[in-house]
UniProtKB/TrEMBL annotation:
The lineage of its organism: Bacteria, Pseudomonadati, Pseudomonadota, Alphaproteobacteria, Hyphomicrobiales. This is Formate dehydrogenase subunit delta. It comes from Labrys wisconsinensis. The keyword Oxidoreductase applies. Keywords: Oxidoreductase. One of its GO terms (molecular function) is formate dehydrogenase (NAD+) activity. InterPro entries: Formate_DH_dsu. Its EC number is 1.17.1.9. It comes from the Bacteria.
């Protein structure tokens, strides 16, 4: 799956959770990606994040960083 498609999907998840405020949205985004994305998808979005993360919305970026820390 292309990085552009993963970014679009992740940002859509972020938009869904946005109305709940950052304190709920960021963990919600992270949990959704952890539960429903294949490991290959997560690896690809983390690689894109490491390459600068172009196009990733700030709450999604924060959620991905939290998810990565919990996985480590």
């Amino acid at each position: 799956m292309s990085p552009d498609k993963l970014v679009r999907m992740a940002n859509q998840i972020g938009k869904f959770f946005a109305s709940q405020g950052p304190a709920v949205a960021v963990p919600g985004i992270a949990e959704h990606i952890r539960k429903f994305w294949e490991p290959r998808m997560r690896e690809a979005i983390f690689a894109h994040l490491d390459a600068g993360g172009a196009g990733i919305d700030p709450p999604v970026r924060e959620a991905l960083e939290q998810l990565r820390q919990k996985a480590a």
